[in-house]
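dumping this here before i forget
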Amino acid sequence: MRSPADMQTIQIDITNACNLACSNCTRFCGNHKKNFFMDFDTFKRAVDSLEGYNGVTGVMGGEPTLHPEFERFVLYLREKYGERKEENRMIYPQREFIKEIRRREFESHILRKNEDGTGKKSGCGNFKMYGPGLWSNMGVTYPKYYELINDCFNVQFLNDHINESYHQPGLISRKDLGISDEEWISMRDNCWIQNEWSATITPKGAFFCEIAGALDMLFDGPGGWPIEPGWWKRKPSEFGEQLQWCEICGFALKTFMRDAKEEVDDVSPTLYDMLKEVDSPRMKAGRTNLVKIENGMISKESQAPTLGFAAVSAAQPYIEHYEDRFNASNSHLLVQNYDVVYIEEDDSWGVGFNHILKKSDGWILYFDNDDKVSKEKAIKEVNALIKKYILNPGTLHLGNGYKFFSKFAISLREFGFDRIAHCNSFEEIIKAWQKKKIVPLDEITELTKWRRDSIENGKRYIIWGTGLSGSFIADAVENSGGKLMYAVDIDPQKDGKEFYGYMTHQPLYVKEHMDEFDYLLIGHYSRFEEIRKQAMELGVPRKKIIMPYEI
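structure:
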């Protein structure tokens, strides 16, 4: 087990309200008779209590954007952490949305010194994410806050659950499986949730583990530790009575997984009875599967079909590819419709513009003139744009003879109806718009290229790691003038496969082709020390290895 101080993330569970009904949700959403919504004072205390914690302060649900005070919560986080220091590339139209989110996550990592002043890896690693983070399924309320979210959060863990995604049953008791106390202690202390994920804060207090906090909310437990500065410094020896929740948690057990879209919770007899006592709405709706246990094992007939893929990592055993978290063809983030308008520029222009804003559902295509041909061309361009790109509602998109924007842009809200009413033309709106959020559409291709100063023009590079991180590092090589020679991956199934038009090889290939590259880029930011060691054992000099925090 780990102290919360050693964890990458500490969550703040602000609500258990959710627009989905996933199988085996870690927050047991749908089993509560009434949803909770954390009040602002508790949220403020929660954030303040994490002063000095060098990790991610997570905001989670349920679906957190359903909270009626979500905007107020985010603004407080921004007050505490300040604006993102890195370039906010999310203001640009995104053709590879989830890949850009992953880039932001990469950029949010910082290299921290240990207490002894060294840079050696310890605990959860010294190259780690920092700042506010959001966990969301990108439901219908996410687009409403898209601009604010991408202005404020350093990292986002998103999963729309449209693609195949598997969840392990959490409502399984080890005693129902006949696991002895001696065997259980070792299993409990090596639980993948506690060792890979998060502690949490709920309206009822602080907890060493996010599942313990969720179980306490579901079964009306005694609550957690006081939400006060430094609570997260507690050691495992101080977890005390909170460990009782492990007794009815199934995540330390080797059971099975179920597709989230089936919307069924798998439970053991003890938990089945407990759900009855709390009058679970999901149980009453027939969405509970009471597993049959034979000789300490869950019977095959009680289990969902086995995953069709190997787990990506201990921290992500439920989905095959990171990109599968987002279904680009069926997302609420795509612009579905827009209003087409033109207003004569005169003394009443501002009044007319306010009228348009009031009537519009959101997105507006504004023409600079009333020419029919120009309008048809603009509509064609915008229709092509919204089919391919996710757009930021806070960005003013400038086209040839038109503007495309959302009435919900923060720039418009800050400018206000009264000031708009006194405007005589759109030029005055442009002057009031946040300058960094004005994007010429004919510059999209160049603006969205991810470049890095660490990549030298004309130098030859190889990348070790062909996952999503490796792919955007390959983008950086290509966009910054470097030459990608080949890729390296330990997965034998990737040997000989194409990666960005180049071949993927096993590590031994590096030793035999040392003269074919100038630098080796490590495309993995949690296993980088291990990869560096392997590369050096193969004969790659340290000066030729570029670590993730050096890219």
